[in-house]
Amino acid sequence: MAYGLPANGELNWDVKLNASIEAVKATADAAVPATEKGAANGVATLGADGKVPAAQLAVEGTASSTTFAPAGNIAATDVQTAIQELDAEKSATSHTHSLVGARATSGSTQSVSDNTVTTIALDVETFDTSGFHDTVTNNTRITIPAGLGGTYLVEAGAGISANATGTRQCRIHVNGTLRAVTSANAVTAAGLPTRLAVSDVFQLVSGDYVELAVYHSAGTSLSAEADLCRLAVVRLGS
Fold first, then answer.
1. What range defines the domain where residue 67 resides?
2. The 3-state secondary structure of 137-190, one letter per residue
3. Both 106 and 89 in a single domain?
4. What is the pTM of this model?
């Protein structure tokens, strides 16, 4: 940069000062505009303590029940510590799965005619996480709720009153169709009911319903015993 010289050869300090100001201004203009400092979509500034003011930090989203509520200015180490704590919490809970499903039992004895497949009313719930079952309406059914289709483990059990004649069956029905069954001869010991159980894994969709049914060939009516008949449906995954 050339500076003007007076006739006597001395530097014109006004010219030099003006040139310096223009040079500083040009440098500043090439950097971050003042309107973008500490502003949205701009750049953060530093406070007197050399830290980013809390007002210029945005914390978005949630992570479990952790609340990140800064007070005053926040150092980079504080932010890093918060991130590490959130990562640790995520790691601790990432393998935790909530039970989804239902289990219901019969609270009263139910008559079962000879040579007749009979679905069992389940009027007592052990658990029901998501409205799978109703103890009054269609209480023979456990129905897959909307949005919860997937792979399910289904387990059923039944106790049929004492009688030494014929065979017994414990059955799982899906949408009214036999899908799994276990059969046994009647228990011959006097006074003892015949107990059976069956389980299987099914791919079920919203609206599918599962039932427990029993069958016998005793030649006379028997009873499905109270508290010995049960049906459980537990979601294994999508």
1. 49-93
2. CCCCEEECCCCCCEEEEEEEEEEECCCCCCEEEEEEEECCEEEEEEEEECCCCC
3. no
4. 0.61
